[in-house]
Amino acid sequence: MKKLKIYVWYIILISMACFNSCKKDWLDAKPNKALVVPTSIADYQTLLDNVTQMNANAPGLGVVSDDNFRLTDATYLGISEQERNAYIWGPTENFYGSDGNGDWYYAYSRILDDNVVLDGIKSLTVNSGSQTAFNNVNGSALFYRSLDLYNLAQEFCKPYQNPSAGTDLGLPLRLYSNVNLSVKQSSVKQTYDQLIGDLLKAAPLLPVTPLYPTRPSKTAVYALLSRVYLAQENYTKALAYADSSLQLQNTLIDFNQLTKAASNPITRFNKEVIFHYTLSGYLAFRTNRLIVDNQLYQSFNSNDLRKSIYFTTVSGNISFKGSYNGNLSFFGGLATDEMYLNRAECYARTGNSLAAMNDLNALLKTRWQTGTYTNMTAANANAALSLILTERRKELCFRAIRWTDLRRLNHDSRFQVTISRTVNGQNYTLPVNSPRYVLPLDEKEIVTGGLIQNQR
Fold it and tell me: Where in the numbering of this chain does the SusD-like N-terminal domain appear (predicted)?
């Protein structure tokens, strides 16, 4: 692992951000100028190499809200207030209660770090011997900022749709380390334009293969661009970038080589991982609480090894154990299996059913027990698309992807889903295209940041 040199100013900055995350607006997390001491490219790289800050606590309330699991009534009462409201798609008022919006605060804390780096490196002298290291720091900060903006947009902005994206409320785009600058909300289009622009700048700066899987790379940039364009329903570009990512890294795990009975069969930093990242550890995600949706679980064939690799039985209920983090923390990073599915879906949507099924079969044959898999076929592109979307939900469950998929697939009548849950005898429903597919902003942001609340 990376050697981490922690500067006094950085400890104070992050401590303040985390301490205040549930109490005060993130803008209050100001670095003490007198303690800022980074003077070299290596110093800024060290800042970005703080994996507990930069590679953890990704927004996860969308997973709490999606349709891949349920909770018992007793468990529901034992989770945090914001989780309870996310689980039942609760009303805006008092959504976060005394908890504070952790997804928002952790992400903007990282964005502040990115901006500190991007502003700070402007004053450094770069020569031929330091150019590569400088480029890595610059590109990494741009990548991290883009990743958080994208993840925030999946929870706190409407799904991207033309032409309304130009007027729908987006995120406050904090692009400088000066936290005293007043920044209003952008539009959804401006939010996506910014993060895509950052990624396009980052791509030529980063190596194909990073020194560590916790660092960004050119491959990761392409993978994230594919994910972003898929959320925009721009299937031509999502296809192009999934293909670009797979041209650089396309290895898949043979699930036959995994130990099915292991508590965590898939290892951290495995060969499918393009960029390592974990979600916030919400109480609802604990194995003894989370009960996998029965329809999802039963959709796996008995010869499909994912059924035993991904899931386990806890107190008579089916729970999840298949995180690419190698433990109980949910993986929210980028991996080759997602890119195969992205490319397959985009091939189908652009009419190339043969290429779509080739990608799907290439993935699935590594997931089934040796000698039992027969290649799937599709009569046409629509049939291929239906098969791919079914496998997409199964393969990528509990990775903070399903929520975005639900939001975008609501725009297609063939794949719309109405989600329902029952808690303490009361039924809750999330209708197709409901405004509650957008989470509310924390009231503290409304009061102190001057932001406009999402209409739900």
Answer: 25-230
SS3 state of residue 327 = coil
What CATH number is associated with residue 367? 1.25.40.390
Question: Hey, which bits of 204-335 come out as E strands?
Answer: 273-275, 291-292, 311-314, 317-320, 334-335
Look at 182 and 376; give whichever has higher pLDDT. 376
362-375 residue pLDDT tens: 999 999 999 999 99
Domain count, the chain: 1
pLDDT for 334-354, tens place per residue?
999 999 999 999 999 999 999
236-257 in b/e form (b: 16+ CB < 10 A) is ebbbbbbbbbbebbeebbebee
* C-alpha span between 421 and 293 (Å, rounded): 11
Residue 268 sits at the vertex; the CA angle it makes with 311 and 279, to the nearest 5 degrees, is 70
Distances (CA, A) of 373 to 71, 191, 278, 364, 447: 33, 43, 31, 8, 57
Evaluate whether residue 59 is within a structural domain. yes
- Please give the torsion angle defined by the CA atoms of residues 173, 178, 182 and 184, in that order, rounded to the nearest 10 degrees: 0
In a domain, 298, yes or no: no
102-156 pLDDT, tens digit each:
999 999 999 999 999 999 999 999 999 999 999 999 999 999 999 999 999 999 9
Tell me which residue range forms the domain holding 47.
Answer: 8-255+333-449
Three-class secondary structure of residue 451 per DSSP: coil
Which residues on neighbouring strands pair with residue 169, listed in sequence order? Answer: 187
In a domain, 302, yes or no: no
**Residue 322 counted as domain residue:** no
- The whole-number pLDDT of residue 180 equals 87
CA distance 317 to 294: 10
